[in-house]
Amino acid sequence: MLTPDGKSLLLMDLTNRVTVWDTASGRERWAVPIKAGDASSGMAICSDGKTVVVRYNGAPLKSYDEDTSHLKFFDLATGKERPDSTRLDRVWDFALSPDGAKMATLHKLSAVGKELMVKVGDLPASVQKK
Length: 130
Fold this sequence. Notes:
With about 130 residues, this protein is mostly beta strands. It has a domain at about 40-125. Helices cover about 0% and strands about 45% of the residues. It contains no helices and ten strands. The chain has strands at about 10-15, 15-20, 30-35, 40-45, 50-55, 70-75, 90, 90-95, 100-110, 115-120. It has a four-stranded antiparallel β-sheet, with no helix packed on it. Strand 2 and strand 3 (about 30-35) form a beta hairpin. The mean pLDDT is about 80.
C-alpha cells in the first residue's frame, strides 16, 4: 500500500512482519514483527497520514472463545504502537470512511452459524485528518 504522499510503501512480508519502506531511497524504515502463530491480514492508512491500522488474524482457532483477531494502530514515522490505540477484538474485517473520521468493523458473534455484526464508530480524534 502506497501512502497518499507517495513517500512510503507499506507491506506485509513473507517473514511475518509489517514493514514500511522509503520510496525515494528504497530502504526499510521500520518493521513490526508478528508473533508466531499470528498473521496480519489487512491494513489501512488513517486520514491524518501518520497512522497505520493493522488487522491481526490471531492464532488458529480451536474454539470461538479463543478468537484473538484484533486491530492495532501504529505511528507511520516510527512504527511504535500508538498509546491511544484501542484494541478491538474478534474483528474479521474493517474499513475507514473517506473523511477519516469513522471506522466500520465486522465481528463474528458466535462460534456456529453466520451471525455477524457491523459496528461503526469514531476513530480517536488524534488520528483524524486535521
